[in-house]
Description:
Elements: H1 14-17, H2 22-31, H3 34-44, E1 49-54, H4 60-65, E2 71-77, H5 80-92, E3 99-103, E4 116-122, H6 131-141, E5 142-151, H7 161-167, E6 172-178, E7 181-187
Amino acid sequence: MSGKTIASTEKKPLSELTKTTPKDRIAECVASMDHEAALIKRTIGIKKGTVLDAGCGGAYIDIALAQNKDLDFILLDPAHKAAKAAEENMKAFGYGSRAQVICGSEQEIPLKDNTVDYVISTSSIGYWHNAQKGLEECYRVVKPGGKIFVSDISWDSYRDYFGMLKQSEIEYFSVHNEQDDMWIEICKKESKKGEK
């Protein structure tokens, strides 16, 4: 049988893997986030403004989203190594001037109320000591009319996210389940004139 090989499942030898640069390896991680980035864009309509990534890790999702030049980023992670990696990765891809990196906890986000347009958190809520407090903090810092997207909650099945949200002061939320993805969407109601 003749023809072109379109894809191969052949494993690369270790010597091949070490030929790649750190930026190449980061680019592969970013490419693996394309599905998640598309889900975020579709779910919360992320277009322009400031995005807080609570539990940013290496900022791979942020690099995927940063192709939109109308977005700036605040990258928050409690681990010094992760915060440093996020900063280095954003700089390596030319987005360093659009990113502020903070080493801090989701339980006590060091921002003023109503600061950011969007909050995202992918693959980190399962590590939050107090998920309800973290969600309330995300809600506190998002501006009225802003939206929050928290994903990868399905593997953390021991937590009742729906119950947590009902007990909080968060008014508008939904928990979604689509194929292998499960996520929380929160909208902060815009204040009407005269309302506080």
